[in-house]
Amino acid sequence: MTGKQTLTIIKPGAVSHEYIGPILAMINEAGFHIAAMKYFRLTPIQARSFYSVHKEKTFFNSLIEFMTSGPVVVAILEKENAVLDYRKLIGATDPTKAEEGTIRKMFAESIERNAVHGSDSDANATRECYFFFSRSERFSMFDTIP
Ligand code: CMP
Questions:
Q1: How confident is the model at residue 2 (pLDDT cuts 50, 70, 90)?
Q2: Measured distance CA(38)–CA(7) in Å, rounded
Q3: Which candidate, 6, 42, 52, 127, has a CA 20 to 30 Å from the CA of 121?
Q4: Among all residues, which ones are annotated catalytic?
Q5: How many angstroms is it from 142 CA to the middle of ligand 1?
Q6: Which pLDDT does position 109 carry in this prediction?
Q7: What residues does each domain of the chain span?
Q8: 93 pocket-lining for ligand 1 (C-beta < 6 Å)
Q9: Is residue 1 very low, low, confident or very high in pLDDT (cuts 50, 70, 90)?
Q10: Do residues 61 and 48 lie in contact, with contact meaning Cβ atoms separated by under 8 Å?
């Protein structure tokens, strides 16, 4: 599936501000196919495992508290060049550095409460997509992706 899938999370802050619809509309308009989707509240164990690469960071505990504070939307997005194209659509991690018109510029509150997550590499996209979705929950438009 290299290059064709990425994982997004619409984070609790954006969900509580009723931004699910506008964010999904931007994703749709940018040409992504939604191959899988869930709406639920992450458990602390899930959040800690998902963000384990950041476990030594000073912001880790605060990030886990935020990510488990309310429901999230998790989705697998598909198109050619999905990881890079989605990172362009969402903008920089820090919304003060994000370009005009990007999802984070429009909907993020801070570097932590930054509206959405997007996979940062094809390897992480694969890990993250399998982290949240079983085979029977994924509906790829690409014949080559199981
Ligand atoms: P995300 O793309 O989900 O990946 C890791 C998350 O950690 C990031 O978005 C932010 O929510 C958070 N994060 C990254 N850097 C910082 C920081 N300097 N301070 C607080 N939170 C951060």
A1: low
A2: 12
A3: 42
A4: 117
A5: 31
A6: 98
A7: 5-137
A8: yes
A9: very low
A10: no
What share of residues in the chain are helix, strand, coil (percent, to 5)? 45, 15, 40
| Ligand 1 centroid from CA 110, angstroms | 9
- Rounded to an integer, what distance in angstroms lies between the CA atom of residue 116 and that of residue 108? 8
Burial environment of residue 140 by CB neighbours within 10 A (0 to 12, 13 to 18, 19 or more): middle
The per-residue pLDDT for range 49-66, each reduced to its tens digit, is 999 999 999 999 999 999
* Burial degree of 10 (CB within 10 A; 0-12, 13-18, 19+): buried
Give the Å distance between the CA of 47 and the centre of ligand 1.
13
Taking the C-alpha atoms of residue 93 and residue 105, their distance in angstroms, rounded to an integer, is 10
Judge if the beta carbon of residue 64 lies within 6 A of ligand 1: no
Q: Quick check: helix, strand or coil at residue 22?
A: helix
Q: Which CATH number fits domain 5-137: 3.30.70.141, 3.20.20.70, 3.30.360.10, 3.90.320.10?
A: 3.30.70.141
Count the neighbouring beta carbons within 10 Å of the beta carbon of residue 58.
Answer: 8
